[in-house]
Design a protein that fits this description.
136 residues, 6 helices
């Protein structure tokens, strides 16, 4: 196929696809019934039961899911929407609490009494070793 015929074919194909998309959209436009109420996944009693908990963590969510006969992910998502879910704290591969590089740099800056903006870009191991050496 020469270049002109190929580009003509592509142009016709794209025009056809565009028309098809518009026709498909117009065919479905206006067919949605917006008068239906949304189906609630949790009853008012179930929501009240969830609200009795001050904080819901993953273990509590598992127990609640068994009690309400719901999926754990569903209970967790509902607790997040209600603002009572507390995710477990993240830990490093070694099991220690995660410490941000910004906090380490702030400690070093406090020891030295200087502004150390930009030091956060250094490797974390270097920052930890520097803080340990300065604080010793």
């Amino acid at each position: 196929m020469d270049k002109e015929r190929k580009s003509g074919f592509i142009k016709k194909f794209l025009t056809y696809i565009a028309k098809f998309g518009i026709i498909t959209h117009q065919a479905t436009e206006g067919n949605v019934d917006m008068t239906k109420e949304a189906i609630k996944n949790y009853t008012d009693e179930q929501e009240a039961y969830l609200a009795t908990f001050d904080v819901i963590d993953n273990d509590t969510a598992i127990e609640i899911a068994a009690h309400l006969q719901k999926d754990v992910r569903s209970v967790r998502a509902k607790a997040v929407r209600m603002g009572v879910y507390k995710a477990k704290d993240k830990v490093s591969k070694s099991g220690a609490a995660i410490e941000r590089k910004e906090a380490i740099v702030a400690d070093i800056a406090a020891i030295l009494g200087k502004n150390l903006d930009g030091l956060e870009k250094a490797p974390k191991q270097v920052l930890v070793a520097l803080r340990a050496k300065l604080s010793a």
